[in-house]
């Protein structure tokens, strides 16, 4: 009698989801499991480089099917519309939204749908703002920037990593434009004094105007308005001030945080549903000192490894991983020829050193290249494909 395979479904193929799929498929025996990766696009998108796409740079094409070739994992190009954690099913539509694509059943689910631009709360953002939160948004911004004549005014709203990188990339690529950055607090106020000095110096060199302590409360077709009544002219507004997780998890019976992230334990398993794991921006996981891991590629890939190894351990009777999740640095690109590498504590607080310049830019490039490489090669060592302890059974609920 043929034994049913254990069905593992991964939702989302960003840095975290794609890493989980490849790592699981390379560590579990194909006779025992079906690994399916569901994603709305057929390609892996390097989200940390989308500000480069916005300025017209061509990125390397990375086919998800090519990345999974030889692993036994299957790619399903479709959009997720709902998850039923009681029935253990995922509802899908066609990737283009044209029609229903049926249901996909699972025994183990890895939720990695990530985050997107948060357009809520500020009038005019949905109607007038551009973004670099996804490839379609970055391409739309690229086309708009190409239309701008010299002297055109670009305002980037948001002083986090995405806003800083987008403003500097646009200013370097289009020196004929007037680029400004509007930040809620001080410029780079999470950096060490050395990091802040380098950032300010680079923005001065690139001619980026910084509006500090500027709470943007409305976005218009040709300006942004701040809480103190100031008007900042803008032919193009780029919104980077906040990201929101996909709302699907909050509509399920899963335990989620106030932000809609799935609450997970140290193995990235849902605290309410033991057959569900969550990784990347979609998960609320604690760092080394109990503070939540931030939404980032630096968090997503280690979370993916932890989740994949935990699934393997539970299915094969192995030892659960106990890898501490923490940080080493924040790598911030400032165009193609400059960057700042802010060293941080394990819980992401800035240390004094923050080297910058051309060498830092080369290092940042290596980090980005390395992140994409690790997604395509999630096991840096040869691994034996392990057999399930009880092939065909549902995932164990105990630890």
TrEMBL record:
Entries under InterPro entries matching the protein: FAD/NAD-bd_sf (IPR036188), FAD/NAD-binding_dom (IPR023753), NADH-Q_oxidoreductase (IPR051169)
SUPFAM superfamilies attached to this UniProt entry: FAD/NAD(P)-binding domain
EC number annotated for this UniProt entry: 1.6.5.-
Cofactor(s) required for function per UniProt: FAD
Limits of the FAD/NAD(P)-binding domain: 7-308
GO molecular function annotations of the record: oxidoreductase activity
Xref: Gene3D superfamilies: 3.50.50.100
Alphabetically ordered keywords of this record: FAD, Flavoprotein, Oxidoreductase
Domain of life assignment: Bacteria
UniProt keyword NAD, yes or no: no
UniProt name for this protein: NAD(P)/FAD-dependent oxidoreductase
Taxonomic source organism: Promicromonospora vindobonensis
């Amino acid at each position: 009698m043929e034994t049913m395979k254990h069905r593992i479904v991964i939702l989302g193929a960003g840095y975290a989801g794609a890493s989980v799929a490849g790592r699981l498929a390379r560590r579990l025996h194909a006779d025992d499991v079906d690994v399916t990766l569901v994603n709305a696009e057929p390609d892996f998108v390097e989200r940390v480089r989308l500000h480069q796409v916005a300025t017209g740079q061509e990125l390397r094409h990375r086919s998800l099917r090519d990345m999974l070739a030889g692993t036994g994992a299957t790619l399903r190009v479709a959009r997720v519309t709902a998850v039923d954690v009681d029935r253990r099913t995922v509802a899908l539509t066609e990737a283009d939204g044209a029609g229903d694509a049926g249901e996909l059943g699972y025994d183990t689910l890895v939720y990695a749908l990530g985050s997107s631009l948060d357009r809520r709360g500020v009038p005019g953002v949905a109607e007038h703002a551009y973004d670099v939160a996804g490839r379609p948004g970055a391409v739309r911004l690229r086309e708009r920037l190409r239309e701008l004549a010299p002297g055109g005014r670009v305002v980037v709203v948001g002083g986090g990593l995405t806003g800083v990188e987008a403003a500097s990339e646009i200013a370097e690529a289009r020196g004929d434009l007037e680029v400004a950055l509007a930040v809620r607090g001080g410029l780079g106020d999470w950096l060490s004094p050395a990091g802040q000095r380098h950032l300010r110096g680079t923005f001065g060199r690139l001619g980026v105007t910084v509006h500090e302590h500027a709470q943007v409360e409305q976005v218009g077709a040709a300006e942004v308005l701040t809480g103190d009544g100031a008007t900042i002219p803008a032919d193009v507004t780029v919104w980077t001030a906040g990201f929101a997780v996909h709302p699907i998890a909050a509509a399920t019976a899963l335990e989620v945080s106030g932000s809609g992230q799935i609450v997970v334990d140290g193995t990235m398993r849902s605290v309410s549903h033991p057959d569900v794991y969550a990784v990347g921006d979609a998960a609320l996981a604690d760092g080394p000192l109990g503070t939540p891991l931030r939404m980032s590629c630096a968090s997503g890939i280690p979370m993916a490894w932890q989740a994949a190894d935990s699934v393997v351990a539970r299915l094969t009777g192995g030892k659960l991983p106990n890898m501490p999740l923490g940080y080493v640095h924040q790598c911030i690109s400032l165009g193609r020829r400059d960057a700042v590498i802010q060293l941080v504590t394990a819980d992401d607080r800035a240390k004094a050193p923050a080297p910058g310049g051309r060498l830092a830019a080369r290092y940042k490039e290596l980090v980005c290249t390395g992140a994409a490489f690790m997604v395509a090669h999630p096991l840096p060592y040869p691994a034996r494909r392990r057999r399930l302890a009880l092939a065909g059974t549902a995932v164990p609920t105990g630890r």
